[in-house]
Specification:
The chain contains five helices and three strands. By secondary structure, it is α/β, with parallel strands linked by helices. It has a three-stranded parallel beta sheet.
């Protein structure tokens, strides 16, 4: 059996997965909409949950802003969706 290359994290506190899973070559994928932005800013490399199905354009914009480290701009998209509370 090979070691995992990706871990899906649903932890409500986005700071938690990084110390537990930090490993070269290991990616963390966020699986919780309400901490999506925080998780991406902490280093998650992907995201899947309900928002992308219901808010496809907004979700794509959030992801794009987070991965280029524009949290203030991302919040203007994120907060109206009721996320990050």
């Amino acid at each position: 059996m090979s070691d995992p290359a990706v871990i899906t994290e649903r932890e409500p506190d986005p700071r938690q997965p990084w110390p537990r899973y930090a490993s070269p070559g290991l990616e963390v994928i966020n699986g919780a909409d309400d901490v999506m932005l925080e998780s991406l800013l902490m280093g998650a490399t992907g995201w899947f949950a309900g928002f992308p199905n219901a808010f496809a354009a907004e979700s794509a914009r959030l992801y794009d802003l987070a991965v280029v480290w524009k949290p203030a701009e991302a919040r203007t998209v994120y907060e109206p969706l009721g996320a990050g509370r």
